[in-house]
Amino acid sequence: xxxxxxxxxxxxxxxxxxxxxxxxxxxxxxxxxxxxxxxxxxxxxxxxxxxxxxxxxxxxxxxxxxxxxxxxxxxxxxxxxxxxxxxxxxxxxxxxxxxxxxxxxxxxxxxxxxxxxxxxxxxxxxxxxxxxxxxxxxxxxxxxxxxxxxxxxxxxxxxxxxxxxxxxxxxxxxxxxxxxxxxxxxxxxxxxxxxxxxxxxxxxxxxxxxxxxxxxxxxxxxxxxxxxxxxxxxxxxxxxxxxxxxxxxxxxxxxxxxxxxxxxxxxxxxxxxxxxxxxxxxxxxxxxxxxxxxxxxxxxxxxxxxxxxxxxxxxxxxxxxxxxxxxxxxxxxxxxxxxxxxxxxxxxxxxxxxxxxxxxxxx
Length: 363
Known about the structure:
Elements: E1 2-6, H1 12-19, E2 23-29, H2 32-41, E3 46-48, H3 51-54, E4 67-70, H4 92-103, E5 107-113, H5 115-118, H6 123-135, E6 138-146, E7 154-155, E8 157-165, H7 174-178, H8 188-192, E9 213-218, E10 227-229, E11 242-243, E12 256-258, H9 259-264, H10 269-278, E13 293-295, H11 298-304, H12 317-326, H13 330-345, H14 349-353
Parallel strand pairs: 1-2, 1-4, 2-3, 4-5, 7-11
Antiparallel strand pairs: 5-8, 6-8, 9-10, 12-13
Helix pairs in contact: 1-13
């Protein structure tokens, strides 16, 4: 089956699609380092540049496509950003719609931040998206998925708009459809066990951003929320799942991990410190963190996004951190693409995806 990749980045979603036997015949991204990473690992079919300047080359007559997929830039919708609907990057969702409408693949998959599916201020845009896809001839719905349900050691929620060419009055029950494709995820400790100690062997690319204890910490019930340290780098839960890895990693927004807890199974200093403050001890004032605390390495971040250990990234360290943080976790991409593959191979597609409930749209 033939697929077309938009806003491909470093190829996280493409890896999952390719593993399911799709032939990706064309891919695109505007970031040169991401394109080079893609070219090295996946193939030469990626074209670097502004999609709006080259999209007309895709509109070919009588060419059958099975799948169009991608994750348009999400900064304008993200709660981590300015939530600006006029952010030029936010307009790329409509570019995606336009290409689907003109190319008419058998199915499409569009990934974005959870906020686009949940926040009230984006409801008109959600509805407009659904209507646009329906008017293009697609049975469409959206679903929020958490990577930790799909063999990824990271609690990372994203929305997936998924559609199938056919009776646009049918609403796919995506939550039910994806359920059989869920897989248990390893813990951070289990996932990182394939790497050598930070700074050695296959885990050499360390992040040297200083870690300083916040003199006035923002406390939450969990030591892995709030702000115990200056900067926005959150502590990593070693025997669980880490929080969402941001594209802004590389400096003081890079997640923090306790080496003694990771390598020697000692009591986690972050948990102990958090507990002491909760119990009434004054927080440390203007002190550097213990030497046992450090930032995630590039290789660790890539593994926590479920990139293959042999994956090669191109560009500076900050560029690679950005590529990793922007990616769809490969194993999550694999699960969704696996569902799509099975649906497209089904001779009773409409029966397979049908649900009685109606999707409420607000005019």
